[in-house]
Design a protein that fits this description.
A hairpin with a 5-residue loop joins strand 11 and strand 12. The protein contains eleven helices and 14 strands. The model has no long low-confidence stretch (mean pLDDT 96). By secondary structure, it is of the alpha/beta class. The radius of gyration is 20 Å and the shape is globular. Bound molecules: nicotinamide-adenine-dinucleotide. Nicotinamide-adenine-dinucleotide binds next to loops.
Length: 354
């Protein structure tokens, strides 16, 4: 199979970690007989430096032409003084909007080999942790009407959703729940918000199409508490944009290892953009210190969700597991008695395992 992939290394550790993902993709291509067709594009600070804008049109067009996008990370102190439309992070919003990516998948997995990194009591995570946050990405309060009065002393933001917007994300979440443990928790604030009441009614209506999935509802304030009180009760969480932004960060932090977690942004066809959840970590950029595993696992998600290559995705995930089993660690996940390696060696070890 030919896989047409757009690559955006970005800023900071972005180029370091994308290089290791390429090594691993090369190993997968060789083992499974796939031809990899890569095109590189600029975004974020790298694009500002080179062409003056965070998201050049050529990048958006190139991504639209590919089947999937792999992004490292964007941003850094060099561009922090820039405001508004010129901020490197604007590239992310532009890509999500421009590519129509409305569904953000953030798995939070606690690897048994890294259980020490979890900030929760070990009794709460006994048996491991593997949950998936499905966040709506292009609606809600981040995209609603906003403004200030003339005096500048009052402001408003609007949360708005249509039935169609809710239905497409909730359907995605049900489909994902069907492939996992068939338990969906929808999170809203239906005791207060009208958008949440609409959201809840759509979830209840679609539930009839998925009789095997156990559905429950939680208010977002309770969910924030339940995530740290009893995280193993969750399988798939579905929620609107802002609640998802906050809860997915909380869920990832309970695994304790930001360098390990991938993400996917999808739409209804197979196209997707894949990236680690962490940022560009300027403090360790170019020093062979970054953990490339989140990016490598993002490639596994790409193979699974865009290219429907489950065996290839499994091969990457189990290669990561074997490298951790053997005690190899980058600095961010290092603990006593383990073997410290750099970014490049970690990438090579995982590629070798494939
Ligand atoms: P960050 O995720 O870049 O870093 C937070 C801490 O985690 C740092 O100490 C960093 O060294 C460490 N870290 C992150 N990824 C790591 C990895 N793979 N291996 C080892 N250690 C790792 O968050 P930040 O410091 O808040 O942001 C830095 C820049 O990244 C900012 O400009 C921010 O806007 C940007 N950012 C970009 C994205 C994105 O591109 N998707 C997401 C978040 C932040």
């Amino acid at each position: 199979m030919k896989l047409r992939i757009a690559l955006i290394p970005g800023d900071g550790i972005g180029p370091d970690i994308v290089a290791e993902a390429l090594k691993v993709m090369g190993a997968v291509g060789t083992k499974f007989g796939h031809k990899l067709d890569f095109s590189f594009y600029l975004a974020g600070g790298a694009a500002i430096d080179s062409v003056g804008v965070p998201l050049p049109e050529s990048t958006l067009l190139g991504c639209q032409d590919a089947e999937a996008v792999l992004l490292g990370a964007v941003g850094g102190p060099k561009w922090d003084h820039l405001g508004g439309e010129m901020r490197p992070e604007k590239a992310l919003l532009g890509l999500r909007g421009g590519l129509g990516l409305f569904c953000n998948l953030r798995p939070a997995i606690l690897y048994p080999q890294l259980a020490d990194a979890c900030p929760l009591k070990s009794s709460l995570i006994e048996g491991g942790l593997d949950l998936m946050v499905v966040r709506e990405l292009t609606g809600g309060i981040y995209f609603g009407k906003r403004g200030r009065n003339e005096a500048g002393d009052a402001a408003f933001d609007t949360m708005a959703y249509t039935t169609a917007e809710v239905e497409r994300i909730v359907r995605m979440a049900f489909d994902i729940a069907m492939k996992r443990n068939k338990h969906l928790t929808s999170i809203d604030k239906a005791n207060i918000l009208e958008t949440s009441r609409l959201w809840r009614s759509v979830v209840n209506r679609l539930a009839a199409d998925y009789p095997e999935v156990v559905v429950d509802h939680q208010y977002v304030d309770n969910a924030a508490m339940q995530l740290v009180r009893k995280p193993r009760q969750f399988d798939v969480i579905v929620t609107e944009n802002m609640f998802g932004d906050i809860l997915s960060d909380e869920a990832s932090q309970i695994t304790g290892s930001i360098g390990m977690l991938p993400s996917a942004s999808l739409r209804s066809d197979s196209f997707g953009m894949y990236e680690p959840i962490h940022g560009s970590a300027p403090d360790i950029a170019g020093q062979d210190k970054a953990n490339p595993i989140a990016t490598i696992l993002s490639v596994a998600m790409m193979l699974r969700y865009t290219f429907r290559l489950a065996s290839e995705a499994d091969a990457i995930e189990s290669a990561v597991g074997r490298v951790l089993d053997a005690g190899w660690r980058t600095g961010d996940i290092m603990s006593e008695g383990m073997r410290l390696v750099g970014t490049k060696e970690m990438g090579t070890l995982i590629a070798q395992q494939i």
